[in-house]
Design brief:
Largest sheet: 7 strands, mixed
Bound molecules: nicotinamide-adenine-dinucleotide
Helix content: 40-55%
Structural class: alpha/beta
Strand order of the largest sheet: 9-8-7-6-10-11-12
Radius of gyration: 20 Å
Length: about 400
């Protein structure tokens, strides 16, 4: 899917053959075996990856995913999208991604800590504050970033907070990082609703995935005045046309339960949530959930891609032909996370910390600039918004490679 998107974007901007493959292929990949001791004394070996897609525009940057569905191909696709995303929003980074094949809900807290530390230990030779800076993604969180930072720092012999972002505040995390991706999604949704002349107070929102991104997007959209009519996690969905009580649902998740244990509305399946009539649909869980089968049934006005790659290429074509849905493509929509990760890395290197207001103000500034450039590119060339965003990101990476020349 990522490769086909690249080919289409490269054709659209007539990217010269000589630079195409250099821009497309991942620069390098690492596969690691991760043996950990289980609480019952047995040993299990997990498998993990780190893929650096592009290092030509700065150190690589990208999250670490803990999921049973991880494959090296998925990690490579996500690394590729990180390259375009960082380049699109103008961050001095390349793109990377990491993943471990594991269902984190099946490990105890101590087993999870051992696995997070072991993964970091194995990738130490491959990463660093000037080389590749990981962050949280699906199935990983702040606490795990803290363990990984501690593992790296112990290995190096001194405190190195800039090696990883999305850390707890007490370890050099940034104000606003936890909510950054969701807050960025909400800010962009608000701007696009304004363009469409839809008052946000009249907007209804359905969100698939109620983790870091989905939960924070729900809070931020609610704070802006929107009504959240549906949420979901991997167990079930909750539908309440009067508005889901987001804080209560979050409290339920934070107490260690899933949405199965939340009684704030009627039960709805993840599949039905996607086709609910609503103003804004926010897929914030997995990739490829909007497919050729359900794309004709979508009943939203705005599709805000908070997850990476939630829409298949076939579904994308259907949505484009329909012409009645504004798509905020993933590389723009969820860029808030990596932008505030960049701020965290800057603060770690400067040993100077910003206020939450400062972080959010600068986040909004960068997102607004990126939105303007994407919409300008869209109008200028008659592209879809996704093609506009991808071509901008890809062109900048290709330009950097061209300017650097080919070594040796
Ligand atoms: P998370 O692990 O915090 O939350 C994931 C949510 O999705 C959970 O509520 C989980 O129950 C739900 N989920 C998992 N499998 C599901 C399924 N099969 N059906 C429905 N729901 C399911 O992860 P996150 O950090 O919120 O990431 C979500 C998405 O956002 C991913 O695509 C990730 O790549 C993307 N993203 C995350 C960040 C970030 O800063 N965390 C930044 C950019 C993009």
């Amino acid at each position: 899917m990522a490769c086909r998107q690249f080919d289409q974007a490269a054709d659209a901007i007539n990217l010269p053959e000589a630079i195409r493959d250099r821009t497309k292929y991942p620069r390098r990949c690492l596969a690691v075996a991760l043996p950990i001791q289980r609480d019952d004394g047995s040993v299990t070996v997990f498998e993990g990856y780190r893929v650096q897609h592009n290092l030509s525009t700065g150190p690589a940057k990208g999250g670490i995913r803990f999921s049973p569905h991880v494959t090296i191909g998925e990690v490579a696709a996500l690394a590729m999208w990180m390259s375009w995303k960082c380049s699109l929003v103008g961050l001095p980074y390349g793109g990377a991604k990491g993943g471990v094949i594991v269902d984190p809900t099946r490990l105890s807290a101590r087993e999870l800590e051992r696995l997070a530390r072991r993964y970091m230990q194995e990738i130490i030779p491959f990463i660093g504050p000037e080389v590749d800076i990981p962050a949280p993604d699906l199935g990983t969180n702040e606490k795990m970033m803290g363990w990984m930072m501690d593992t790296y720092s112990n290995h190096i012999g001194h405190h190195v907070p800039a090696v990883i972002t999305g850390k707890p505040l007490s370890l050099g995390g940034s104000q606003g990082r936890r909510e950054a991706t969701g807050a960025g999604v909400a800010h962009l949704v608000n701007l696009y609703l304004r363009d469409l002349k839809i008052p946000i107070a009249e907007a209804t929102v359905a969100i698939q995935g109620f983790g870091n991104v989905g939960g924070e997007a729900a809070l931020a959209l609610e704070a802006l005045g929107a009504r959240i009519i549906a949420i979901s996690d991997y167990t079930t969905g909750i539908f309440n046309p009067k508005g889901v009580n987001v804080r209560k649902a979050l409290a339920c998740i934070q107490s260690g339960l899933t949405l199965k244990g939340f009684d704030g509305g009627d039960e709805i399946s993840n599949a039905d949530l996607l086709t609910l009539p609503c103003t804004v649909l926010v897929p914030a869980a997995l990739e490829r959930v909007i497919t050729a089968e359900n794309a004709p049934q979508l009943r939203c006005r705005v599709l805000a891609e908070a997850a990476n790659g939630p829409t298949t290429n076939e579904a994308d074509r259907i949505i484009e032909q329909r012409g009645d849905i504004e798509v905020i493509p993933d590389v723009l929509c969820n860029a808030g996370g990596v932008i505030v990760s960049y701020f965290e890395w800057l603060q770690n290197r400067q040993h100077y910390y910003w206020s939450r207001e400062e972080v959010l103000r600068r986040l909004h500034e960068i997102l607004e600039r990126a939105k303007e450039s994407v919409d300008y590119q869209k109008r200028k060339f008659g592209f879809s918004r996704r093609l506009a965003a991808l071509t901008l990101g890809i062109q900048r990476v290709a330009d950097a490679k061209q300017s650097r020349g080919l070594f040796p």
